[in-house]
Amino acid sequence: KGCKLVGCGSAVPRLEITNDDLAKVVDTSDEWISVRTGIRKRRVLSGGESLTSLAVEAARKAIEMAKVDPNDVDLILVCSSTPDDLFGTGPQISKQLGSKSNPLAYNITAACSGFILGLISAASHIRGAGFQNVLVIGADAVSRHVDWTDRSSCIIFGDAAGAVLLQACNCEEDGLFGFDLHSDGDGYRHITAACKEEGATKAQDSNEGVLDFPPKKHSYSYIQMNGQEVFRFAIRSVPQSIESALEKANLSASNIDWLVLHQANQRIIDAVANKLELPSEKVISNLANYGNTSSASIPLALDESVRSGKIKAGQIIAASGFGAGLTWGSAIFQW
Ligand code: ACO
What we know:
lipid biosynthesis; five-stranded mixed beta sheet; binds acetyl coenzyme *A; transferase
């Protein structure tokens, strides 16, 4: 059985924060941020907006583009590490989309790789278990988990949601050509937002030696990131992963029409494109406007490029996500 992408959509919060706005709250500058990252502004949830409502808006646009009845969506995968509810938001999104068919809906946690993992999971559900119309949503509000006094991390992230609809088709129409997925628990320490006992400085300090009952209150710490290690990991692993996905697809880098990477840092995007010997005209980047939107960044960039007419029907896309976990993965697919 085959599967193909038939719709995409995205949504961003109303509040825009520029680098100059950030320079008013932390010791930084527009020049430092744009030179080191390529980011100029980002959107942040505020004024009662929820991540679930952004996800619903993105999903609705994808369903409309695909001209599919919401009741015919039989699976919703919500890729998010920062959901409105720790127990998952898939069923709520399904309800808000107006679905009356009670489809399977659940969340996947894989930080900035979430969307690629979701896409491959969706394809496996279609190929192996007979699902027909699968919504894959990447939605993150990392702004809720950054320390807005830490200039090394708060400048990077923005909030957004993006979605695609993957549909079952016959083998001849199959539009997902190859993929490659990995994790590395050794590198976990380089980017964390761990659960810890309140008052403890890190997760491991919690309850050391003391068997407390009832347990003390726990909460998640702010994101802690060793930017240089994550940077090195990305430029080492992402080109390898794309090459491996291309090999499985029986294609080479010269077949790629568009490179749509997780939008983390312009220097990472440039280094990966360089290693793959892809000219900058084939590289999609909207990082300047939105920053790193975690699992939303790939479907957001895809949606903008499809709607602007940049990405055209039939073109081949190499997409790759990477981030906390560590996790990373790539997919080669046709729009
Ligand atoms: N403004 C001004 N100066 C700053 C800022 C800032 N916002 N942030 C750090 N600095 C300073 C540092 O203190 C340091 O000063 P020092 O030399 O006096 O010690 C100097 O600038 C250099 O800092 P570095 O951390 O070495 O800067 P680097 O060039 O590595 O850029 C960055 C940092 C942007 C974080 C980069 O490492 C990066 O993008 N890493 C990848 C992050 C990423 O891709 N994450 C994706 C996964 S996210 C997820 O999974 C949720």
